Amino acid sequence: MPFVSIGGVTLHHRYRPGTGNACPIIFMNSLGTDFRIWDEIVSLLGDEMPTLVYDKRGHGLSDIGGVSSIDDHVDDLCGLVDHFGLAKVVLCGLSVGGLIAQGFHARRPESVEALILSDTAHKIGTADSWNTRIATVESKGIQEIADAVLKLWFTPAFHAERSADLDGCWNMLTRQPLAGYIGTCA
Question: What's the mean pLDDT when you consider all of the chain?
């Protein structure tokens, strides 16, 4: 399993340099998920396309690290880009991953070939909505919100027809480190 230390935080990643000359695509996942959500997409891109997926701090197999703002995640992404010597990248961010992509672009626009932003915005939620979620998760665990989150992530047809996949996503969400989940919410 590949790991790299960026600014004292160990990040789990999978980098495929690709066999062609295409600009690398970096995939950033949503809150409560790990980089496995990109596996099918990355495999469809084939061996020619360079790709990087990683578990942001506090998620998957990466260190929890201290998270006080999106800038902490942007710092990690900058470190990964520098570690792999990537001059230009395409950033694909889902939800909070999109916030990280936007933060990277604001900091290093010359390094971004393109942005692919999915289910994101320049700001997601309000301080009150995030503080309510944090309080619930701190007192009752991620399991308390998991069913509601999965209803937002997936269509009713997905819920009805893909119960094993839904169970796997529930497991992934509820097994995230509590401190990492809460830190990213904050």
Answer: 95
